């Protein structure tokens, strides 16, 4: 049965062609939402849309999230077709698997562009609509890596930490406008994120990590996340016992956490 809180709500999800975005789309559609699906690949987005319940209610709007002109055009398309936006889920992202000393500045900037600046630009583009509506929910998919910082993920951790802090400031600024802001911190979830993760030279790693392979199922992640968003939670950690323990220890004793991280196999 559709959730009364999501029934007929317009939910815009970026990075919706696979992985976490696809799973979030499936969960929201099952609860009666009308989706806007964005990513670069139109064909993959269409496959996602056609597999959703009430496929005719959902809209595919392809865009490269790093291209501001395309983002503005996508926003205009969404408003023309749907008239409003109730949820924006900033999910598009790019991971990393490289030591700092092996990572070029071009790769550092590429990761920051996708994981931070692009999310900021899309949110700032959509924000006037939320303010005019006096309602809306903005969610950012950060990462447990954005809370902890580990080897081989310095640029990724930095970008995911940056969007978390930016979201905190946004939440404080728009709370009186009836707008909610949530940050989601996934741990290891079984997606193609590690295949696409950039090495130091900025090329996709091209293989799966063991930790990702043993992570949560995407559907499980999506169910927990959407339930938390519907409950109005603002700080949402979704992961296994190891990731949750790491987040807890980071709050209680950062010194102990970094002793633990130095001994961990994280690649």
TrEMBL record:
UniProt entry keywords in alphabetical sequence: Oxidoreductase
Similarity comment: family membership: Belongs to the short-chain dehydrogenases/reductases (SDR) family.
EC number from the UniProt entry: 1.1.-.-
Gene3D superfamilies referenced in this protein's UniProt entry, alphabetically: NAD(P)-binding Rossmann-like Domain (3.40.50.720)
Alphabetical list of InterPro entries matching this protein: KR_dom, NAD(P)-bd_dom_sf, Sc_DH/Rdtase_CS, SDR_fam
Residues annotated as domain Ketoreductase: 9-192
Keyword Nucleotidyltransferase recorded: no
A molecular function (GO) term: oxidoreductase activity
SUPFAM superfamilies noted in UniProt: NAD(P)-binding Rossmann-fold domains
Full protein name: Oxidoreductase, short chain dehydrogenase/reductase family protein
């Amino acid at each position: 049965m559709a959730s009364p809180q999501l029934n007929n709500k317009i939910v815009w999800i970026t990075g919706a062609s696979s992985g976490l975005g696809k799973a979030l789309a499936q969960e929201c559609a099952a609860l009666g939402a009308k989706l806007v699906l964005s990513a670069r690949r139109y064909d993959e987005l269409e496959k996602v849309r056609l597999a959703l319940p009430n496929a005719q209610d959902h809209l595919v709007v392809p865009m490269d999230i790093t291209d501001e002109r395309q983002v503005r055009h996508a926003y205009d398309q969404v408003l023309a077709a749907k008239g409003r936006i109730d949820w924006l889920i900033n999910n598009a992202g790019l991971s990393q698997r490289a030591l700092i000393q092996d990572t070029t500045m071009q790769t550092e900037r590429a990761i920051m562009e996708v994981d931070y600046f692009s999310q900021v630009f899309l949110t700032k583009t959509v924000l006037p609509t939320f303010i005019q509506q006096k309602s809306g929910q903005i969610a950012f998919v950060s990462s447990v890596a954005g809370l902890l910082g580990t080897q081989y993920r310095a640029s990724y951790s930095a970008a995911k930490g940056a969007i978390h802090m930016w979201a905190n400031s946004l939440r404080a600024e728009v709370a009186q406008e009836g707008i909610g802001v949530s940050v989601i911190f996934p741990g290891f979830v079984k997606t193609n994120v590690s295949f696409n993760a950039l090495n130091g030279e900025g090329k996709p790693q091209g293989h799966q990590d063991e930790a990702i392979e043993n992570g949560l199922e995407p559907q499980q992640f999506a169910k927990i996340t959407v339930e938390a968003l519907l409950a109005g939670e603002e700080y949402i950690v979704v992961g296994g016992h190891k990731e949750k323990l790491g987040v807890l220890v980071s709050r209680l004793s950062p010194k102990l956490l970094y002793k633990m991280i130095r001994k961990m196999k994280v690649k």
